[in-house]
From TrEMBL:
It comes from Streptomyces aureus. It holds the Pfam family MST. InterPro entries: DinB/YfiT-like, MST-like. Residues 1-37 are annotated as: Disordered. It comes from the Bacteria. This is DinB family protein.
């Protein structure tokens, strides 16, 4: 086990821009090219890019590294972030439905972070949960292109929900930057 005083050397895989995570030709995000047209497409593009960023920050790590906690007393880990965002996607989907809400994915409060243990089955389930919950929320919103439309029992505007989703992923990508740098020293946007 690595001690808190063991500091990995900082490094980047990028060679074109050393402050980037990957070289432009290898980066799947929308960092180059034509900008999105309109507010809805802009929000969707930012959401997609932040989702990809989180996945990129988790790539190439073993179960112990993905489950490694930041600093006590925090329970935050990269695996915990994957699970937390799956839970958040389920919550957002519940906000816009008129039916009964789906139950929490991970049970008790902080179950998303507390249950993030270094087991491959837990990791595989976290990725599957995240993909499924993202797809469900995306599908539920697909039929509502009017950003001012209010949805669900809470009558949340589509715009507010999309901005909230972008904000949540962006905030946690910042956490992922720090977590990844502490794990193996890799840096980059």
């Amino acid at each position: 086990m690595r001690r808190m005083t063991d500091q990995p050397a900082r490094w980047s895989q990028a060679s074109v821009y050393p402050d980037m995570w990957a070289d432009p030709d290898d980066d799947p995000r929308s960092s180059e090219g034509v900008s999105a047209e309109g507010e809805l497409e802009t929000l969707q593009t930012f959401l997609t890019d932040y989702r990809l960023t989180l996945r990129m920050k988790c790539e190439g790590l073993d179960p112990e590294q993905l489950a490694r906690r930041s600093v006590p007393p925090s329970t935050m880990s990269l695996l915990g972030l994957l699970r937390h965002l799956a839970e958040a996607e389920r919550d957002w989907h519940n906000w816009i439905t008129d039916g009964e809400p789906l139950p929490k994915l991970y049970g008790e409060p902080d179950g998303d972070f507390n249950g993030a243990v270094a087991e491959q089955a837990v990791i595989d389930a976290a990725y599957a949960d995240l993909e499924r919950e993202q797809a469900a929320t995306d599908a539920a919103l697909a039929g509502h292109p009017d950003l001012g439309e209010r949805l669900g029992k809470v009558e949340i505007p589509v715009r507010e929900l999309l901005v909230h989703r972008v904000e949540e992923y962006a905030r946690h990508c910042g956490h992922a930057d720090l977590l990844r740098e502490c794990i193996d020293g890799r840096v980059g946007q």
